[in-house]
Description:
By secondary structure, the chain is mainly α. It has helices spanning 4-55, 63-72.
Amino acid sequence: MVTKKKRRSQLARASWERQQVRRAERASRRRRRRTITTVVVVVVLVAGLLAWILTHQPGTASAHAAAGQAALTGQAAR
């Protein structure tokens, strides 16, 4: 027969072990969520940067900008 003190100790140890398992699972979910969030943010930033680069290339100046440049150099846009 197990003494009352020993039984309480066993129950406390079992409770502590279950709590440690729950904490480890929670930490794992938190790490996974943080990793996924980081990847999504990086992908969105890279896509935004790529879109900005593709739409703001120096060789694709608008007619308005070309006319403005011609006015600055003294040439009349006719």
